[in-house]
Amino acid sequence: xxKKISATRFSFRQLLELDACTRxxxxxxxxxxxxxxxxxDEITPLRKIExxxxxxxxxxxxxxxxxxxxxxxxxxxLRSFSAGTYDCTLxxxxxxxxxxxxxxxxxxxxxxxxxxDQGVYPEQFDHLRETVTAHYNISGDPNxxxxxxxxxxxxxxxxxxxxxxxxxxxxxxxxxxxYPRSYSVPQSLVEIFERAGVDYMTLGGEEWCCGFPLVIAxxxxxxxxxxxxxxxxxxxxxxxxxxxxxxSCYHTWKHDYPHIIGEPLGFEVVHATEMLExxxxxxxxxxxxxxxxxxxxxxxDLGRTSGVYDAPRNVIRAIPGVTFVEMEHHHxxxxxxxxxxxxxxxxxxxxxxxxxxxxxxAQATEAKVILSACQQCERTLAEAARRARVRVRVMxxxxxxxxxxxx
Length: 407
Prior knowledge:
By secondary structure, the chain is α/β, with parallel strands linked by helices. It has helices spanning 12-20, 26-30, 32-36, 45-61, 64-67, 75-86, 93-97, 104-118, 124-135, 174-178, 184-196, 212-217, 224-235, 247-261, 272-281, 310-317, 343-346, 348-364, 375-387, 397-403, and strands at 168-171, 200-201, 241-244, 268-271, 293-296, 323-324, 369-372, 393-396. The chain has a four-stranded parallel sheet. Strands 6-5-7-8 form a four-stranded parallel sheet, with helices on both faces. β5 (293-296), α16 (310-317) and β6 (323-324) form a beta-alpha-beta unit. The protein is globular and about 70 Å long. It starts with 11 loop residues before the first helix and ends with a helix.
């Protein structure tokens, strides 16, 4: 039986982009997930566009659609299409090389929204939606325990749960709040803020999931409550700036929130590396030499989708003694770590394969340390290095800066 595919999830621009695709296939060569899973043709950007274009044209033309070779959407074709659509990290490399500038990432999200409308998506995402809407975080832990990462600090500063107003709100994010492997990132940032004299605060239990995992799952409608709550919580603090160390939180706050609430936020949103660049540049902290060769992994949501490339590199180069070497693919052409797009929920093996390839690139630089600016990237790359028995350390830039601060 044919399924009805509504075009309402696609903007007018996106409908034009579906027709603008020239089928050149350049995007296929740059897709990190297709490189690792070539048996699934549906995973390629080209195939996804062809599928949706065919579905919509067949539906618009009715019985005539088959005469022109357009395939109607059926339960079977939608399930195949769904497998390819959710095996995408939303890294955006395909958009970089597209000769007609199709905004592929936004297009893939619209496709996921359409699949959710049809009820054809990985069942694990129902659990994600239920967890975030019930517990306001991705782990299902009590949300009032968001400051558990601060328990190991020698002394918990006033900015961690002890203020109601401040110049800067530090939005910690779900991963750094609830996953022990990432606790050292907020611990490091707080230490840096204290040393640099930053007037900051956290929201504690009033911080809810930014909504990013739901938005990219095609379930953005379920994230609206969290978005509105978070904006109101920050506005109550009279803060002039919000800083996030998680690129996904950062991107969602900076680019999605104003669109979702239909108005400007009323405060600036910056990534932690941009703030570290200011602190280091203004010499508000002093750094000890770090005599190591390091390389840097560009997180997709910080680099390609948000355009932040210079700040992390400027911080790295400001550390005395560092020898900085770029990987073969960097800046807008950087490989994905494999941990984006909710892919790990759909196919853990695919995430591991993409991460392994990125670690191999890092290994070729002979760097002793892989630096990144994303807790998810740090986790996936560290696990890939462990599995491949590669002797390299994976760190967040904030962790290195805190470690090298002079007394």
